[in-house]
Amino acid sequence: MTISTARITTATPSRYITRLCKHWGHKFEVTFDEQKGLIQFPAGTCQLEAQDGVLLARIEFPSEDLEKMEEVVADHLQRMGSGEALVIEWVRA
User: Fold this and answer.
1) Helix, strand, coil distribution of the chain in percent, nearest 5
2) Which residues contact 71 (CB under 8 A, 6 or more apart)?
3) CATH classification at residue 34
4) Could you tell me the pTM of the whole model?
5) What's the Cα-to-Cα distance from 9 to each of 15, 26, 51, 79, 83, rounded to whole Å?
6) Cα separations (Å) of 91 from 26, 58, 66?
7) Angle at the Cα of 56 (from 29 to 37), degrees rounded to 5?
8) Structural domain that includes position 53
């Protein structure tokens, strides 16, 4: 498994956690509250954490799937933003 993380500046990190977890909760196992979220995909996980003005995202997937999941998570976060332009830069561990 390979890990990729992103620090995403936003005034509403908790909102993104709630919206993304509810969205994927129809297909995958999720747990979340206002501060943290965990989405369990068949091949890996996405962890979200709200901090003051920042959403931390951490995905862990097999290396061959990581780039695709970086794109999928970033795309979904952008769509959840209601017009807020997020800057999402993934850093691999």
Assistant:
1) 30, 35, 30
2) none
3) 3.30.310.50
4) 0.91
5) 13, 27, 10, 15, 14
6) 28, 9, 11
7) 20
8) 2-92
Side-chain-side CA neighbours of residue 80 (13 Å): 20
Task: List, for residues 18-27, the tens digit of each pLDDT value.
Answer: 999 999 999 9
Domain tally, the chain: 1
pLDDT band at 85 (very low <50, low <70, confident <90, very high): confident
pLDDT in tens, 19-75: 999 999 999 999 999 999 999 999 999 999 999 999 999 999 999 999 999 999 999
List, in sequence order, every beta strand (DSSP E) within 21-74: 29-32, 36-40, 45-51, 54-61
